[in-house]
Amino acid sequence: MDEFAWFMEQFRLLTGIDLTRYKRPQMERRLTNLRDRRGYRTFPEYIEALKLNRALMDELLDKMTINVSEFFRNPERWTQLRALLSAMGKSPRVWSAACASGEEPYSLAMLLLELGLHQHPILATDIDERVLQRAEEGIYAEPQIRGIDQNLLDRYFLREADMYRIREQVRKQVQFVKHNLLVDDYPQGLDLIVCRNVLIYFTDQTKQQILERFCSALNPGGILFVGSTEQFLGMNLGSLSPVAPFMYQKAK
């Protein structure tokens, strides 16, 4: 019996999340290590424990989704994005997909406020409800705000003891919603999609499907901004063309 294949099917029935669309070696190694650390010898034992223990399930979801983010990650990319958004000449409709704990959509909100382009709420989505709750609170420890320019920090954050809270001016620009990239409908009529360092965890077939759905969701001239770990070698980009490192524009 392929025990991990059995576990993936049981997990799909339990949560609706299809692990077969993730790269198996990485996912199997990660979840086997987590199972072993919690003292379960087999995946049947582990799945029964997951059904009964919400904290255990939350831990697994956190491990599965790799909730790692930071403000203005790779600053040179944000400089390029700023130029592309300025050239649009309009307030863009933006989706921050797999947004984790909110650093990315809040970075987008600050950038658009600086450009005077903020009229539409930024849609920020993730599969993990717990990180979305933390994102909505908009409270970050000092190590988490290291990538923020001091001027932006002074303008858009409030210092509370040893923590920093996003000002309401920024928080109200972002709408957080639970969303599964693999099964849920995608928003349409977008001018910018940001999905960074996420597609690397999916199989090539699933990555291609997501890429096509992103392309369909974009308006002509819209931008897809991905992470520096993403590789689209040998993939069909459709009407998307590279316009900057890790940024693709849909044909106008």
TrEMBL record:
<dbReference type="Pfam" id="PF03705">
    <property type="entry name" value="CheR_N"/>
</dbReference>
<dbReference type="GO" id="GO:0032259">
    <property type="term" value="P:methylation"/>
</dbReference>
<dbReference type="Pfam" id="PF01739">
    <property type="entry name" value="CheR"/>
</dbReference>
<keyword id="KW-0949">S-adenosyl-L-methionine</keyword>
<keyword id="KW-0808">Transferase</keyword>
<dbReference type="InterPro" id="IPR000780">
    <property type="entry name" value="CheR_MeTrfase"/>
</dbReference>
<dbReference type="GO" id="GO:0008983">
    <property type="term" value="F:protein-glutamate O-methyltransferase activity"/>
</dbReference>
<keyword id="KW-0489">Methyltransferase</keyword>
<dbReference type="InterPro" id="IPR029063">
    <property type="entry name" value="SAM-dependent_MTases_sf"/>
</dbReference>
<protein>
    <recommendedName>
        <fullName>protein-glutamate O-methyltransferase</fullName>
        <ecNumber>2.1.1.80</ecNumber>
    </recommendedName>
</protein>
<dbReference type="InterPro" id="IPR022642">
    <property type="entry name" value="CheR_C"/>
</dbReference>
<dbReference type="InterPro" id="IPR036804">
    <property type="entry name" value="CheR_N_sf"/>
</dbReference>
<dbReference type="InterPro" id="IPR050903">
    <property type="entry name" value="Bact_Chemotaxis_MeTrfase"/>
</dbReference>
<dbReference type="InterPro" id="IPR022641">
    <property type="entry name" value="CheR_N"/>
</dbReference>
